[in-house]
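This part of the workshop introduces the protein records we will be handling. Getting from the letters to the C-alpha cells is the skill we practise here. The record below serves as our worked example for the rest of this section.

…
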Amino acid sequence: MKVQFKVLIISLAFLLLAACGVADGGKVTARDVLKNNEDADILMYNDFIYSNVTDLDWIQEDKESYSKGEHLGDIKKTTSSSFWFRDFYATVLPKGTSIYSTNEDKEGVGMILVEVDGEVLYYMQLLEG
C-alpha cells in the first residue's frame, strides 16, 4: 500500500510539473521576464508581453520605418508585480499612456508604439523560442 501511494504521489507531481509548462500556452509571461530582470520595461497587450527595445541599435537605425497606427488602448496600471499581470499593465509606463499599433505590421502585432512626453517608444512582442 505504501509503495502504491508513493507511486501515485510521484505521478501526480510529474503531471503537475508538465501542466505548468503549457499552462501559459508557450507564451513568455511577466514572471519569466521579471525573474531574469526585475527592472524590465514591459507591458502586456492581447495576452502577450512586449519589451521596450527603443535603445537597441537596430531599432535606432530602422525607427523611421515604423509609423503610428490605430490607438489600441491605454495603460491601466503600473506594477512591478508579476502576479496577475494583465492586458494594459506595465512595469514602467505610467497609467494613461496610450498604446498604438504600427501601420507596417499587417500580419499581427509584433511591434507597438507608445508616446510618453512627446517621445515615441518602441515595444517588441516577446516570443518563446
